[in-house]
Amino acid sequence: MKIRTRLLATTLIISILPLTLVGGLSLWKSRQALSEQTFSHLQSVRQIKKSQIEGFFKERREDVLVLMHMVALLRQDAEQKLSSVQMNKIAQLEAFFQERLSNIAVLSQDEWIAQALEQFDGAFQNEGKIGGLAWKSIEGRLGQGLKKIQQEYDYFDLLLISKDANVAYSTRQGIDLGQNLNTVVPEENALRRAFNKGLEQVAIEDFVPYAAADNQAIAFISAPLYRFGELTGVLVLALSLDSHAPASVNGIVQRSEGLGETGESFLITHQQEQHVYLSALTSASTLPDRKTAKSIDVQLGLDSETGVMIKMTSDKLLKLSAYAPVKIPGLHWALVSQINLEEAITPKLGKEKLDFFSQYIVHYDYHDLVLVHPEGQIFYTVLKEDDYGTNLFEDEYSDTHLATLVKKVHNSGKLGVSDYALYEPSNNEPAAFIAQPLLSSNGDVELIVALQLHDNSMGEIMAKRTGMGEQGESYLVGSDYLMRSNAFLDPEHHSIQASLHNPDKGIVKTPSVQAALEGKTGEHISENYLGQAVLSAYTPLNIAGQRWALIVDINRHEALAEARKLQIMIAGLMLIIILFCWWFASRFTTQIVSPLLLVRNQLKSLSHGELLDTKLDYQGNNEIAEIITASKQLEHALRSIIVQANNIAAGDYNNEIKLLSEKDELGQALVDMITTLRGVVRQANLIAEGDYSSEVRVLSDADQLGLALVNMTRTLRQMHEENSSALRKLEQENAQKNRQDWFKTGISQLSERMSGQQDIATLSKNIISFLANYLQAQIGTFYIYQSNQQTHQGALKLLGSYAYTRRKNMSGEVVLGEGLVGQAALEKQLIIITAVPEDYMQIQSSVGEAVPENLVIVPFNYENQLAGVFELGRFTAFSEDELNLLQQITQPIGIAVNTAESRLQMQELLEQSRAQAEELRTQSEELQNYMRNCARIMKNYKANRKN
């Protein structure tokens, strides 16, 4: 091979081989770094989505716990109100009959009544009939007075019966007038039973249908009549249940105050081994034909027990029922007051059209709220869909996932969550439920609260695609391999609705989904549900026993697009460098070989013994010595070049090339090439280590390799910044969630502190102590508004405090408009003070005292009426979240305070009723003693006259 060919081939090999090795290594490193960076980004997105979804369901669980406490508080308030109405009616009924008993006791001692009986009976005996001239004459003189007594007290009839059982007089003059009661069967005639009892004492005969009164339900009150100490007959007063006067039995029982739209009260009596209605139901115009009343609350009331319970009627309506005995001498009665459970525990606040639960689902973005009785009856829903009023254990929806969840939480007594499934009552749309049972003090389930989630409840979380490119997505898959969120790439077949409605087209059974449902977490390159190659990160999710798969995918072609661009640029750059090297090597070889050919020709000429007088035709004035020297220098230079080229081929770029002179163009070209390759290797190593901060030094505008590295570094730096931004946003969302957790925990714990039967003073202390501790306040006071019924004015009374010492010039009562507390109560507006007067209140301890720098005064209402005010003071300012919490808890505090006051008022009313009854009984006894003394005096007088 000629030396020219050898030199050209050797130069090209030495130049191209290191370039190929360095380019290939840089491309492999950059592709690997880009893949690792993409997987790292997918891991970050996967972790963010997982935390957000778990946080979402944690918030839902906390929502239903807070809601359960609110339901318990509303039910307790409803029970207190119903019991208050019930006891008020019982007190009025007992007072009504006590007044009638006292009335007949007084009348039976009246000499005029006894004389009237004696005269009517005498005329009846003489004439042998009722209505004779003598009888009518007596009726004309005495009848008006007797009728006045009957009408004044709204009696159905007033009867005078002789001791021989002759009905001598009746204000109604019905068919029983003139009848001898000894001729009727006592068991079949209520008047005769009343007569027999009245011969001995004051007695009451219970309401029964009475034939002489067109079968109206009549009760008889009877008392013996004496004249000069001898029994002459019986006075009988008849009461009718048909009377609806305000002061009548039905008038008292059917008063609707405090019973809402569906509430009603009714009387039950025990007669002839049966429980029988006495008063008409509000929903009926007349008595229910004295039907037998068979229910647990009725039996408990007749057994002299008092309480409140939830019962289911024969038409499958749930009622909140209060039962208690009515204590009237000689009668066996019970009063039952009931109201639809739905109305009782779903109040409307003020004049608002929506009830509390309707506002709740709107505010917290739920589809529906369902209240279920322990026996499976859905007695309330906000939307009133087809499941409203059905029984989840028996009716058409007993096989739904809501029914399964209700059975589960009923048996376990704990919170439960269902998976998403089609729910027929909601137009067969996908729905999930979260349910919590309300337990009684002995652990029994009283009712179940269930919240229905939208099918897109997690849509906002999964729809965020920051840093996911054009075809990246995240989605959830259930254990049945069907979607639990909406897919981005194929919403037509792989949304949650489409997937559940058409499982054959919506199934997702990719390697990532299968691995996640097996409990594995990882990343790999596989195919998605569309058969596309993707970089996929997967992990399992366990939501209250439901296993889901969380998948985060990005298209492989899109993820490695930058690596392909770099590959094309490096290949083009290598081709340009190869062409340059070939051109450079060709010129270099020509420059080296041409002088040698001249020398060879010269040497050949010399070998032939030819002497040339002419100089050699080459550049420079070389002599033989110079040619030899030049040849040696050329040989030495070529040797150095070969050594350096071998070092470059071995990947060593540290050796420096020593230039023979400033005109050594070959050496300078090699120096520039080594400098370029060193920069490429250094930048590739930094990118592989995850350092994107360094900038590539571009040799010139034509340095395509350097420009490619610059673009790749900028792309990776942008992806790194997007990951950092996503992590910062996650931290902000966690902070927001912590604030919401603090808010809900405060409401829940306050509800627990207010629950139970507490007197108003204890409740006030518990509330202010909790608020001071929870908000880290150093001092606090709690005032209750008390109205003066006589002056129609009210004042705020201090009933509870925290670390507060009353000063000499500070009163325990505050008039509306007086001071900061009175002004806040008058305006019903929250007041914030940031500069508290030194003489207002002080925080005291064993080491000193100080004035709080910040003060908040909060009024609270019940049904738009002022109920009280509380104030808190501390050294630091109150945050916006703390002020929002204080405003939100005013409604539950108002309800709790009103409940405690209602309980106190009910107790006072009962005490007053008992005191009045006792006073009437005492007066009756005194009057009876007086009449007996009068009778003895008359008897003694009559005896003296005979003597």
UniProtKB/TrEMBL annotation:
Signal peptide: none
Coiled-coil intervals: 903-940
SUPFAM superfamilies noted in UniProt: GAF domain-like
Domain of life of the source: Bacteria
Gene Ontology CC: one annotated term: membrane
Gene3D superfamilies documented for this protein: 3.30.450.40, 6.10.340.10
Assigned keywords, A-Z: Coiled coil, Membrane, Transmembrane, Transmembrane helix
Pfam families assigned: GAF_2 (PF13185)
InterPro entries recorded: GAF (IPR003018), GAF-like_dom_sf (IPR029016), HAMP_dom (IPR003660)
Ranges where the HAMP domain occurs: 632-682
TM annotation in the entry: 566-585
GO process annotations (BP): signal transduction
Protein name as it appears in the record: HAMP domain protein
